[in-house]
Amino acid sequence: MPRLVLTVIGDDRAGLVEALSQVVTAHGANWEDSQMAELAGKFAGVVVVSVPADQNDALTDALRSLDGLLEVSAHPGTEVTRTAPAEEHERLTIDLIGNDHPGIVRDVSSSLARSGLSIESMTTGSREAPMAGGLLFEAHVVVRIPPTVDVADVRAGLERLATELLVDISVTEPERSSAAH
User: Fold this and answer.
1) Is 101 left (phi over 0), alpha (psi -120 to 50) or beta?
2) Any stretches that span the bilayer, and where are they (predicted)?
3) What is the pLDDT of residues 159-177, one digit of tens each?
4) What is the pLDDT of residues 79-97, one digit of tens each?
5) Nearest alpha carbon to residue 101 among 167, 34, 52
6) Are 162 and 108 in contact (CB under 8 A)?
7) What residue ranges define each of the domains in the chain, with the CATH number in brackets?
8) Mean pLDDT, the chain, as a whole number?
């Protein structure tokens, strides 16, 4: 079954998820996965839906009816085939905290990319520093580790980066995880 990746954004208010889910369900689509949050007064999210092939265009057209409430963009996703066993891969969890300043996400993501790691999920935020004043930046990042990558090298690179950025970075031991959700 084809899948669509929907990106959504609108002014935060009650009923946004309901309105989106009504359109999705009305076209026989299944809501598979999503990540949504209120950010700076906006409600933003990403939703993966599987949709019957004969309803794909109708669903995409119907999503336009939400204009004024939500801006929705539909992007074709990959179909999931469940005939082969899921490939196992290791995941590494990275937590970062430190004084907020521009460039932290750029520097951390650059280090991960140079190591050949793919970001599976990333959550970031800032909050008031309780004693020092200013803002603290926090990040929680989960990355997939290809079998050819040495975790010790990744850890050493992140520790060097933490020193340069003046932040604390903790790296958990890899865990085995299924590639399919």
Assistant:
1) beta
2) none
3) 999 999 999 999 997 655 4
4) 766 554 555 678 999 999 9
5) 167
6) no
7) 3-76 (3.30.70.260), 88-178 (3.30.70.260)
8) 90
Instruction: Tell me if 144 sits within 8 A of 174, measured CB to CB.
Output: no
Token representation of residue 2: 């084809």
Structure tokens at 100: 């907020």
Q: Which residues pair with 3 in a beta bridge?
A: 50
Determine how many CB atoms are found less than 10 A away from the CB of residue 169: 21
State how far the alpha carbon of 117 is from the alpha carbons of 7, 27, 39, 112, in Å: 24, 37, 27, 5
